[in-house]
Amino acid sequence: MTIERPASHLFYVTRLRRPLVDRADGIYFWTADGKRFIDGSSGPMVSNIGHGNRHVIEAMKRQMEKTTFAYRLHFENEPAEELARRLAGKMPGDLDRIFFVSGGSEAVESAIKLARQWAVATGQSKRWKVIGRFPSYHGGTMGALGVTGDLALTETFAPQIQPMPAIPAPRAYRDRDNLSMEERGLRYADMLEAKILEEGADSVVAFIMEPIGGAATAALVAPDSYFARIREICDRYGILLIHDEVMTGAARTGRYLGGDHWNCRPDIVTMSKGIGSGYAALGAMAASSRLVKPVLDMGGFQHGYTYAGNPLACAAGLAVLEEMERLDCEGNAVRMGTLLKGEMEALSKRFPFIAGVRGKGLLLGADLVADPVTFQSLPKAKATNQRLVDLCYERGLIIYSRRIRGDGIEADNFMLAPPLIITAEQVGEMVAILADAL
Ligand code: PMP
């Protein structure tokens, strides 16, 4: 059955029309004309607890009967208080203060501004630069774009962006040298120190990184040695370490935070996506009282968003967190992630244009290459990544893919990141479609 649809007044990235969604349940979507899709990328890594969760829906209904919105500067609300308490309990180290926002970009803006205002409040007003990594993705707003390493997204807006210094993200799996992985990890981390010295240590306020690379690098995992060395360097120069956990947080990689795999101790954590799991537009920044106190003492954090911490979004976030624990999303992400990664490795043996299978939990990715040894990229004109996405789409599987370019890198990749409630049978279903498309 094909449904006739009027011309659309909407636009997003392109003018491409997509099927009209009707309903969703678990890992599946159904369109208005009855076709089923597997949500193989959790609608870019948002729907961590899956669709149609009754506990969350009921909790939201109860909250809607009471109040959906109360402006945060007029009233406190119980769901926000409780969610902040629960999230603080999941943060590393002394990160005990939570600032709510409505999305990932807002969380990153908040982190950049908190870092800067902390510097001013503590008499270090020369410090303002935030070093980022290339490639990386931190959001679509101007401040977040300033630390985003992706020329395709930043080039046009260059006159309006304050571009920040960047170091390469550690693509150690592609390097062909005589170093061990651990040595490569240290080599990439030491690039931070070199960059700090180049910029002038007293001008840098923070370093921002995704603990496991997301959109720009397709689940890039750094060698274990990287993390402790990064912390060491930040400490040496009094620089704040910001972990952008917007994609990696909320159990996506098999631990509550991506950085938990290495017992990381960031100074600021940003989150969104999975904490609302698609039930609410919700984001959060976590920081320690150590950073927040001087800022509040200075007369207040000069930043905020109208919808922040609204009771409906927070009630949804709270119910999502309860379900994430009840359904053991961390454990299932590890179990199903191991299974799916094994299947991807098998596919890369069968199809030599897939290389560098990587990731943790259910944030998995691979490169599409012309040569699996040298990782030489595919010819530009072929747009192989888009072709793969389309072929999967036709077969009812949604996967995520990007082409990243700039700074000597030209690479196609794709990611698989289904809801964390996926079963082994459903993993098999996904892989069968992917294999057919490949
Ligand atoms: N940071 C990271 C690591 C992300 O992956 C994203 C979204 N892909 C963002 C920030 C921005 O989040 P949002 O799209 O919700 O603004």
What characteristics describe this protein?
2 domains, Aspartate Aminotransferase, domain 2, 438 residues, Aspartate Aminotransferase, domain 1, 15 strands, alpha/beta, globular, binds 4'-deoxy-4'-aminopyridoxal-5'-phosphate, single chain, five-stranded antiparallel β-sheet, seven-stranded mixed β-sheet
Describe this entry's structure for a reader:
- InterPro entries: Aminotrans_3 (IPR005814), Aminotrans_3_PPA_site (IPR049704), PyrdxlP-dep_Trfase (IPR015424), PyrdxlP-dep_Trfase_major (IPR015421), PyrdxlP-dep_Trfase_small (IPR015422).
- Belongs to the class-III pyridoxal-phosphate-dependent aminotransferase family.
- This protein is α/β, with parallel strands linked by helices and 438 residues long.
- It folds into 2 domains: 21-52 and 328-437, Aspartate Aminotransferase, domain 1 (Alpha-Beta Complex); 58-326, Aspartate Aminotransferase, domain 2 (3-Layer(aba) Sandwich), CATH 3.40.640.10.
- Helix content is 37%, strand content 18%.
- The strands form 3 sheets. Strands 4-10-9-8-7-5-6 form a 7-stranded mixed sheet, sandwiched between helices. Strands 11, 12, 13, 14 and 15 form a 5-stranded antiparallel sheet that branches.
- A hairpin with a 4-residue loop joins strand 12 and strand 13.
- It starts with 20 loop residues before the first strand and ends with a helix.
- It binds 4'-deoxy-4'-aminopyridoxal-5'-phosphate.
